[in-house]
Every structure is written in C-alpha cells, then in structure tokens.
Design brief:
By secondary structure, this protein is an alpha/beta fold. It contains five helices and ten strands, in the order H-E-E-H-E-H-E-E-E-E-H-E-H-E-E. It binds guanosine-5'-monophosphate.
Amino acid sequence: MQILKDRIRKDGVIKSGDVLKVDRFLNHQMDVELFTEIGKELKRRFSDCEINKILTIEASGIGIACIVAQSFGCPVVFAKKNKTKNIAGEVYTSKVESFTHGRVYDIIVSKEFLGPGDKVLLIDDFLANGKALEGLIDLVNESGAELVGAGIVIEKGFQRGGDAIRSKGVRLESLAIVESMDEKTGEIVFRD
Ligand code: 5GP
C-alpha cells in the first residue's frame, strides 16, 4: 500500500532493538484518514470472504480496528490484557509475550462476544515475532469461531512472525512489509 509506505518513510523513526516508532500517525497520534484508506484496502483484499467480527488486542490495535470495521460493517472485539485472577469460566484466555515490554501477560475475551458461527478477521498494528497474533488465534480456536485471516498494518519481515503465522495456514495480509531498516542512516527497505 503505497501511501502507507510513503508515510512510514516520512514519519517513522527507527529505534534500537528493531523497533519502528510510528507514533506520529499510527499508535499515539492517529491519522484517521489514513486508517480509512487502510480499512478500504483490507476490505478489497478480503472481498471474497464473509467476515462478521473483527478481533484485535489492546491497546494500539483498537483505534485501527474500529475504523477498519466500518469498511466491513461489523463489530470489533478487543482482547483485554488481564490483571485479575480467577477468571475461568466466562472468558477465553491465552498468553502473550510482549515484544515491546518483554514480559508475558494473559489476554481474555468474554465468551459472550466470540463463539461458533463467528467469522473472524484479526487486526493489529504490527507483526514482529507473531506472539500477539498467536494469542488471538488461540482465542478464536478456543471459541469455536472460524478464523478467516489477519490484516496487519506493518509487518517487520526480518522478524519471524510472518513466516510462523503463514506456516500455520493463516491467510495473512500485511499492508507494508519492512524488509530492513537501518537505525544509523534511517533507510527503510520494503518488500514489493
Ligand atoms: P509480536 O507479538 O508480533 O512480536 O509483536 C506485535 C506487537 O508488538 C504489536 O501489537 C505491537 O504493539 C508491538 N510491536 C512490535 N514491534 C513493534 C515496533 O517495531 N514498533 C511498535 N510501535 N510496536 C511494535
């Protein structure tokens, strides 16, 4: 998606530890017009699919998922990062190792909002090692819903998540795939 790649080149900041900061337009300040274009593009890529629910993970996936959901005309459910114990029964749970914070946390979704009959598209801002998506896939599988695919805004193609998710047979559409990025020169190379 060319306007997204141009925006990453213009406003993305490469940090140490293979982190790309896109706070200026994606996950702190949010460019809603760009999100609308992202929604249209994902709708185009998944036009052959029936989707009745979008699932994302708090926090930075939520804003994007809401705008994307307008293109699909369906509700958004976000997995919560759980802080309380003794939650078994009413919720689906999985564990996710955070890329940015390096710790493991539980994620939950209420059984009320996901279940058999749902056709689910996963949405997230970044794909790095794939742990967030794997956690969401676990929740979908646990619920008995059908996983249609995953739409990612920025995939870091030099990390292992893309291969791991695709090798599970999940249909993965990433709108910009960063092949390499250089903290010193600021150069970003995208996959075609
Ligand atoms: P994964 O679980 O695929 O390793 O990492 C995905 C999650 O980590 C995303 O939900 C995103 O919030 C965060 N993340 C991973 N890499 C980056 C990055 O380079 N920049 C930012 N801003 N967030 C990232």
